[in-house]
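Hello,

Our lab assistant flagged a job as stuck in the queue for most of the afternoon. It eventually completed. Since we weren't sure the result was trustworthy after the delay, we are filing this so someone can double-check. Below is the sequence as submitted and the structure that was eventually returned. Let us know if re-running is recommended.
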Amino acid sequence: MAQVQIINGTYRNKSVAGQVFELVQQFQKTAKSAFVTVRNSGQFPGFPETIRINVTSPQDYQFVNGVSTATIPEAVAALVTETEEEAIARIRERFEILTDMTKAATTGDIRAMIVSGPPGVGKSHGVEQEVEKACLFDKIAGKRLRAEVVKGSATPIGLYQTLYKYSDANCVVVFDDCDSILLDDVSLNLLKGALDSGKKRKISWLSESSTLRREGIPDSFEFKGSVIFITNLKFDQMKSQKLRDHLDALQSRCHYLDLTLDTMRDKILRIKQIAGDGQLFEGYDFDKEAQDEILDFMQEKQNSLREMSLRMALKIADLRKSFPLRWKTMAATTCMKLAA
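-- returned structure --
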């Protein structure tokens, strides 16, 4: 029977790092937790024979006897055998693709794209940068901007108005963190119309509306612009079958880019990548030693931090700059979850 040694994991909120267990079931991930199932061979008297060790990814445990990655399911094996350099290259390539696809959307070559990834990894920032570049000449010429970034909640009629406003060719609408659109049937149908792959994308509002009448907006129009929809949701992991059907319909209409930052390790490596490129701590006047201290601290405290994100790295950097002797204590108080 295969045995695994836990590199980084907990059971009942207590670290089991370094302990060896008999493996029962490989790494699994649900909406609320990630774990590996092992046999309790006396390590925890009085508890079930099989227990779940909380981990963040397959990298948090290693095999210690006679098991090669050939016996591991293909998807898990890919993660287990991926080196840090390979993972960073994969992540960098995904974000480079995001930049290129956004550029293509601003010229009308790409008409629709959905971007999926966890919060705080820089997906919105990269898109917004390209949109700002596309609008630069509009600003210089004093023209109406041909792109807009919509954040937060959007009502169906507000969505219709926005799509009409940017319905011309080479216009771009970016919906960032507007997941409420996916939960409303009217909004969802409007979005489907904007993302349609047909030669003509006709969008209609068939209900009486004094708002549209007052603003002179017709009850139907042809949408010729581009749409980028940025979300924290992973479309292929939604449990609601009704929502899955809608999301599948959206995916079939446009490009779907999953940034593949699914594990804690991926998020940490994304932060390291941005720091290594000289973009994360720009303006802090930190030497490499100070930057490495922050990154090492985040990796060490990964299970205690409120979130693993670029925003969190900057919060800790602020503390490192303001309180050079006490920043770790300050971070433990302001950036970490309270102990259960």
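-- support follow-up --
The delay was a queue issue, not a problem with the job. The result is valid. The longest helix spans residues 84-106. Residues 3-80 form one domain.
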